[in-house]
Amino acid sequence: MTTDLRDLYQELIVDHSKRPRNFRRLEGANHRAVGYNPLCGDRVTLYLKLDGDVIKDIAFEGSGCAISTASASILTETLRGKTRAQAEALFHGFRELVTGNTDGPAEVDLGKLVAFSGVSEFPARVKCATLSWHTLVSALNDDRKEVSTE
Ligand code: ZN
């Protein structure tokens, strides 16, 4: 990886960690899950508004390190409008990217998610990067009709 590209990725992560996108409770969400990474103390609550198989809207709240916050922020940007199957394919590609365990070239266009490619050099940070994705899978499988407003 060239130094320029590394700097660009670093800037993207810093930007999203300082100004996370879609950082709010999502009114009318019909799927929700809470994720916690005890190794680092990262917490994320993910809200989804699913219409059939399509993610109509997505937002998150929480607190954590720069990597986990930026990952959740870019996740929400990436997944709005995507189907459940597309989201699962992206998670597969993203996990390969950050663990460095690829079984061939990625079959999905990871877009901005490639900014996390450097995480594969820091195994302790892999859980920070994937926390919001594991939370996503949990949220997709949460079939409550409405999120509690308590
Ligand atoms: Zn972390």
Describe this structure in words.
The protein has one domain: Sufe protein. Chain: A, CATH 3.90.1010.10. It is 41% helix and 18% strand. Strands 1-2-3 form a three-stranded antiparallel sheet, with helices on one face. It has helices at residues 3-18, 66-79, 84-99, 126-140, and strands at residues 31-37, 42-51, 54-63. It has 150 residues and is α+β, with helices and mostly antiparallel strands. The model is unreliable at 145-150 (pLDDT under 50). A hairpin with a 4-residue loop joins β1 (31-37) and β2. The radius of gyration is 15 Å and the shape is globular. The structure holds zinc ion.
What is the alpha-carbon Rg in Å?
15 Å
| N-C termini distance | 47 Å
Structural domain tally: 1
Known CATH architecture = Alpha-Beta Complex
For the secondary structure, the number of strands is 3
Largest sheet: 3 strands, antiparallel
CATH topology: Sufe protein. Chain: A
Give the uncertain stretches in residue-range form.
145-150
CATH class: Alpha Beta
Query: What ligands are attached or bound here?
Result: zinc ion
Key structural traits:
3-stranded antiparallel beta sheet, disordered C terminus, 4 helices, Sufe protein. Chain: A, alpha+beta, single chain, globular, binds zinc ion, 150 residues
